[in-house]
Write a structure and sequence with these properties.
By secondary structure, the chain is mainly alpha-helical. 57% of the residues lie in helices and 5% in strands. The longest helix has 57 residues, at 217-273. One of its GO terms (biological process) is intracellular iron ion homeostasis.
Length: 817
Amino acid sequence: LNQNVSSFQRKFVGEVKRCEELERILVYLVQEITKADIPLPEGDASPPAPPLKQVLEMQEQLQKLEVELREVTKNKEKLRKNLLELIEYTHMLRVTRTFVKRNVEFEPTYEEFPPLESECLLDYNCMQRLGAKLGFVSGLIQQGRVDAFEKMLWRVCKGYTIVTYAELDEPLEDPETGEVIKWYVFLISFWGEQIGQKVKKICDCYHCHVYPYPNTAQERKEIQEGLSTRIQDLYTVLHKTEDYLRQVLCKAAESVCSRAVQVRKMKAIYHTLNMCSFDVTNKCLIAEVWCPEANLQELRRALEEGSRESGAALPSFMNTIPTKETPPTLIRTNRFTEGFQSIVDAYGVASYREVNPALFTIVTFPFLFAVMFGDFGHGFVMFLFALLLVLNEDHPRLTQSQEIMRMFFNGRYILLLMGLFSVYTGLIYNDCFSKSVNLFGSGWNVSAMYSASHAAEEQGSLVLWNDSTVRHSHVLQLDPSVPGVFRGPYPFGIDPIWNLATNRLTFLNSFKMKMSVILGIIHMTFGVILGIFNHLHFRKKFNIYLVSVPELLFMLCIFGYLVFMIIYKWLAYSASTSQVAPSILIDFINMFLFPASEASGLYPGQASIQRVLLAITALAVPVLFLGKPLFLLWLHHGRGCFGVSRSGYTLVRRDSEEEVSLLGNQDIEEGGNQVEAGRREMTCEEFNFGEILMTQAIHSIEYCLGCISNTASYLRLWALSLAHAQLSHVLWAMLMRLGLRADTTFGVLLLFLVVAFFAVFTIFILLVMEGLSAFLHAIRLHWVEFQNKFYVGAGTKFVPFSFSLLLSKFSTDDHVV
């Protein structure tokens, strides 16, 4: 309500800054607590937002705690750095003891040059006899910089230095970075002060840790004794400092989470108050909010209770106001429906009061998934996994798990239904890990095919088996027209004898392909019917007659007739008449080609009925293209221009030409009810017939072509079901069959390995990969083929102010939101 006011000039900007400062301190505390490996208290404590007096006390306590922690931490780092330097110095003295020999101390003399071959060049006596001023620089350098350091010394000092190295036995921690790395101890001997200055600058450039080098053995011994004492003292002081720091952090960790929740609640409150406006007296806050109608009484009670607890002189009150804005969409969900609603919302949030597909998705989504994933064994494993998640849904480890596991957990009820429906379709397909289960006994009788089981007059007219046929034939064919061979259909699902048949794949492909077409057309027709309820609710009855009815006629007269042909052929033809049954595909193509010679069809009068259906389709297409634009044009020229208001908001969208033409349609759609003058605004806008005609033409072309492509798209149900069954068969043949056929000597041990590999491949390939593939295809069928028929999804989700949306815990790399 105060968009014209700058963010820095709003009333509660100071309080928001205070909350941000408190958040900064809390983040620093959590970082220090985490660094010290102190566990944060678990639990979902949600303390209320504190009053202003308590906020000031909290701010003072946190600021004092921060200052103290920073000071103690700084002292600890200094002590630790000093300790590491002393340890390095100790190692340097120990290693460099053997670099240069100093046996006798004496004053400088100026004698003649001694013979060089009789004494070592590095002997201190020799250097003094040369009359030179010898200097030493010693320290430590990282392992990776040794070569470059030596080259630089040689080039700059022109060979007037002698460098000696020795690698330390153990890596040491770098006092600057804290990284544990390998070090080299070096000792540089040089002549002259100028060269010494160059050497020291080079050491600084390569970040060497330089330490004083003792002149005498006695001095070296004294330094080592002093270092040992100081190191022991530093260890003692450092341990006491760490103990004190840990005590302070443990005490702070007890309340840091609750304080973080309180600060975030305060910040959220002040941020919301900054969006309100003040009245003319600058003493009353005014806010406009969306509230569900069912929660109005609860909102009134909350305002009264807040006024009473705060001791306000004037109570807070609420009024409902009319508005032209379309309200946001609130869809109440629970644990079970939340996952299915998320699938729909990923496509688009429903417009206000639009039909919500999530209710039907609860059934259709797992069912279409199961059609592609039909296997009793795989579905049962998925069901058990989802059931385990559902039974332990309140376990904190699951609610705070990693991203991939959290995805499975959030969709646990979807997985549960997908597994349950897959068990059902697996029983229909009679498929359990690619094997059939004979529960009720096969309806086919093999013995009835033998000639010995029939009378002599039947043996002459029927093609029967004898012993020679059985011995010499590679393939034996069961003839259902032979009496006693086919005793009736299997009570539930596919007969298990088809698992042994060589034409099993041909039979199942025909069955699943036709089933996919039937399911797809039913699914799409249901979506068109749901669009009628949208038109009824939004009081656009003309869309029913000019859009929905032509769409239904187009769908049913072509593709609904195809479903009729499939079911009629199943019912009308038996095994004895199957040879004369016409092809559905040929008849369906001939329906559009009008062949000159009419062959015998599925039923009498088929050609006449098909011509009538085509005529209805031909009449429905122009109505679909031109009916709605012409009606809106007539409505625009024949009616005045006035607004339509209802239920506290208007249905008019200023960017919709259709709604503009309906501004005067109150007599038709509203029944002539008069609306108060204070709640109506006259709105006249330009009516663009060309835009409406183009929009409707695009929609009609998309629908007509989409009916063909979408019907073909449902064939993915058949394709993925076939792929899943074949993968299961291949996995069984390559693993389990080998293990079961092994010899008895090592067969048991081999079977254990085979079962283990079979379980791993089943889970990762057939359950995870194939399940994910079927899941994505089921989503596509709902988004594109089903929801596209009626669902707009152009709404705005209602996100109420709620403390439960605030994060109550910090992570290690938490940033203040």
